[in-house]
Amino acid sequence: MQILNSNRKAISFNDVLLVPSYSTVRSRNDVDLSWSIKQYHFKSPIISANMDTITGPRMVAEMDNLGGLGILHRNMSIEKLKNFVEPIKGYSTLALSVGCVAKDSERINYILEETRSWIRSPILCIDIANGFSSNMTDTIRYIRSLKFDGVIIAGNVCTPEAVAILLDSGADLIKVGVGPGSVCITREEAGVGYPQLEAVYNCAKVGPIIADGGIKTPGDAAKCLAVGAKAVMLGGALAGTDCVPGWHIPDGEGLAFLSFRGSASREAQEAAGCPVTSVEGKSLLVPMRAKGSTRDVVKRYEAGIKSAMSYSDSRTIKEFYKKAKIVHISPTSVQENGAHF
Predict the structure, then answer these.
(1) Active-site residue among 100, 184, 224, 243?
(2) 340 pLDDT tier (thresholds 50, 70, 90)
(3) 19-47, pLDDT tens digit by residue?
(4) Shortest CA distance to 197 belongs to which of 182, 184, 183, 214?
């Protein structure tokens, strides 16, 4: 057995705080949240999770309107995928999820052949529970062998070694996070994972990453960007909002609920027509939120990130990474966080 990081404990969000610096940023409006990957430029670092209860066509459209990115989930048949992409063909940016080539070659081939007629190059997100695997590297290399020169997002992983190997295999952007998601139980069922902020910090030193999982507040998102993430992915924060699949204006006065589930939950696997071999996600019901709630969540997170950047005298995300200062705090210090009257 090999024990990693034995000199100190690995950290996550509640273990640290960002320290204010003398700031010359006079207004949060002076803060620029934009970021780029290859030919794509985004005004917002917010990405909606490629989960079947979070990102369908409506979420893709809304995230595009807001300057961020929505990654369409892969828990659907090829026929349904064709119906889904029809209304969003006119978008300059389209991100689609695929599985490993051994099991999902039909989807990969359809996307690469079909989309070339109406979009220069989609963003492909290879969505594998254990991204640090031959399944992942084989899939990246297969896609590149088909002369695909667009953006490949690969994940999920949680170590610098994994990021290096996936980038070397041909990926452009790596999703980091194993086990921290709000409806993920991988750490309970398999005992596998890595404290999320530490994973983001270590992995961002190697190459461009997305922080995926465990982000409960705008402050958590700000900390991810401060330690090097290019963007942050939201799942639970967007659950039940007005652009998720199945949202509608309910009849009558009663409170309506929507499904929210992890991609490795029994329900998600069954909906995708996959054999259920291991359940590492939960499924639950969340209250249906008001019209405009997707936008409200994104704007709240952007405001919190801008505020954090202004406290660190930073006008861009790159500057934030260079200037941000973080202090480790004691467990009792956490009790001071938030309202506690």
Answers:
(1) 184
(2) confident
(3) 999 999 999 899 999 999 999 999 999 99
(4) 214
Closest CA to 18 of 196, 221, 202, 182: 221
Q: Between the CA of residue 154 and those of 130, 190, 235, what are the distances in Å?
A: 10, 22, 17
* Active-site residue, 186 included: yes
- Predicted confidence (pLDDT) per residue in 255-297, tens digit: 789 999 878 778 777 776 677 777 777 888 999 999 999 999 9
Q: What own/partner pairs with CB < 8 Å and gap ≥ 24 does 321-326 have? A: 321/204, 321/225, 321/226, 321/227, 321/228, 323/21, 324/18, 324/226, 324/227, 325/18, 325/19, 325/21, 326/16, 326/17, 326/18, 326/19, 326/223, 326/226, 326/227
How far from 44 is each of 32, 121, 206, CA to CA, in Å?
Answer: 9, 20, 22
Distance CA 202, CA 174 (A): 13
Checking 191-194 for CB contacts under 8 A at 24+ apart, the result is 193/158, 194/10, 194/158, 194/159
Q: Would you call 203 a catalytic residue per the annotation?
A: no
The structural domains of the chain, ordered by start, are 35-246+293-324 (3.20.20.70)
Buried (b) or exposed (e) across 35-51, using 16+ Cβ within 10 A?
A: bebeebebebbbbbbbb
Catalytic residue (choose from 55, 137, 186, 241) = 186
